[in-house]
Every structure is written in structure tokens, then in C-alpha cells.
Amino acid sequence: MHCKSKFQWLMAVTVLMLSTVSAQADVLVSPLRVHLDEKNQTAAVIVRNPSDGPRTYRLEWIEQRMTEGGTYIKYKEGEEVQHRPASPYLRVSPRQVTVPAGSNQSVRVNYRPVNNMLPGEYRSHLLFSVVPDLSEPFSVQKIDKGDGITLELSMQLSIAIPVVVTHQLTEVPQVTIAEVEPLPATALGQSAQLAVLIQRSGMGGSIGRVVVDMQVDSEAPVERIGLADNISVYAEMDQRRLVLKLRDQQIPPGAWLRVAYEGTAEYKGVLWAEQVFQTR
């Protein structure tokens, strides 16, 4: 038997990222969250492909839960879903889409309520899953394994966005900022941080941004030193924890800080909660 002294082992690997943020701007989806109700039953989602090759995506509904820290985790097969799935009342068209290089493609999401739906919040994730055989990889990485073996990884990106349906909700949820804890920088050159605990009650969830403003003294201007956008606390969640990276490495003693959770999207203009305190 004759064997070559050197050969290549090629392997294609599809990397699935269930996230609302695209990697390296290779795939852009807008908006990153869709909200539908009785008055707004249709939405368009735009998929942009800024790469040099075409991408083909298969669209499907999946169910994911959010941890207190804001991470989405897909439910395992047979695992009980803790929220009300919206997918039985949603339709997406087309179910597969090819986006040429440097182009946009629109998909349409329709909400179809039924008579026996209970009031409340419903949610599912719309997954744009790459079809590897029909798509250019978003990056290719070669790994030398030694002994003449090269492992080639063709990276493909998939993305999932939440689609939230609110049905016959007449009251906004009750939201408070229960805790705020300044955290010092952990290393030289790093920024200070702020740990925030948001608590929620009611039939619906909240969506908004957390802002941090600082006034060093009564004569100084108010400056924005922290911002965390797209912060959701869903209806099945009692609370949400987050750590904001601040602009400055240190917060001066005696400075005044305002931490606020402000509504966005369908809750734009709502001030969910705020805390104002003086640092020590």
C-alpha cells in the first residue's frame, strides 16, 4: 500500500449562534426584536448580507428561555417551556431565503390571534439557520494538527431574534430597580462597573435601556457614563441582573449617580424605574 507523506483532512463545521447580535457584521438582521399585537399584526425583518458570497437561510421557530443574566438558552427536547410560545399564532414567509452578496432580503412575520387566546405575553424566537451547501462560509480557519494533517473549519453563522406578542394587555408591568452596587475596576486601565438588579411583576414583560448619569458636584454638568440597550425582563421572569461597564475607571466620592430603566420600542417614553444616590 502506498501512502503519501503529507495529506490534508478537510472538515466543514457549522457554528450556530443563537444570539441577537451578528458576528463580525457578517450577517445583519433588523430589527433585533419584533413586537406584534392586535393593532400591529405584521412586521418585516430585513436580512443584509455584506459578504462577498451568497447566503441561504432556512427560517424556523424555536423556543428559548432567558437567564437572570440575560443569556438565551434553547429548551432541550422534552423540557417544559416556562413561557407562552407565540409560534402557534405566527406565520413567516418565505421559509427559506437566499441573500446575494451585498444585498438585502425581507421576510414577513404575521400574527394570527384566535378567539380562545388568554391575555398575556407570548414569545418565540425566529431562527435564521444557514444552509451550508448553498452558502459561502463567513470565514475559513486552518488548524495545523501536525503529522501533515490540516483541519479546515468553515464557519457559518446563524442568528435568532425574539418575536414577542402581547394579547389584550391593558396594564404595563410594575418594575423597580431593587439594587445598585458600584464595582471597582478589577485591573489597571479597566473601567468601573455597576451591578443592577431589576425586579418585575404583572402580566407582561418590559423592554428598555438602562442608563447611568453622573454629576460630580452641584456646579458640574450631568454626564452619561453608562448605557445598556435592549434590556428585556419577560413575563415569566421576576428579575433580571446586569453589570454595566462605565466610562470612567473611578467614580469620585460624593458624586451623584442616577440609574434609570427607560422604556423603548412599544414602551418608548415610559420611565420604568430610577434610583438617585450619592457615592461614598
Account of the 3D structure:
- It is a single chain.
- By secondary structure, this protein is an all-beta fold.
- 0% of the residues lie in helices and 52% in strands.
- The chain is built from no helices and 21 strands.
- The protein has a 5-stranded mixed beta sheet with strand order 3-14-11-5-9, with no helix packed on it. It has a 4-stranded antiparallel beta sheet with strand order 2-4-10-8, with no helix packed on it. A 4-stranded antiparallel beta sheet has the order 18-17-20-21, with no helix packed on it.
- A hairpin with a 5-residue loop joins strand 6 (64-66) and strand 7 (72-74).
Notable traits:
single chain; 280 residues; mainly beta; Immunoglobulin-like; 5-stranded mixed beta sheet; 4-stranded antiparallel beta sheet; 0% helix; globular; disordered N terminus
CATH architecture identity of the largest domain: Sandwich
- The percent of residues in helical segments reads under 10%
Estimate the strand proportion.
Answer: over 45%
- Strand order of the biggest β-sheet: 3-14-11-5-9
Anisotropy-based shape: globular
Oligomer category: single chain
Low-confidence stretches: 1-25
Distance between the termini: 78 Å
Count of runs of 4 or more consecutive helical residues:
0
CATH fold label of the largest domain: Immunoglobulin-like
Task: Report the top-level CATH class of the largest domain.
Answer: Mainly Beta
What's the story with the biggest beta sheet?
Answer: 5 strands, mixed
Number of distinct beta strands: 21
- Rg (CA only): 23 Å
Mean pLDDT: 85
* Order of H and E elements: EEEEEEEEEEEEEEEEEEEEE
**Count of separate structural domains:** 2
| Alpha-beta classification | mainly beta
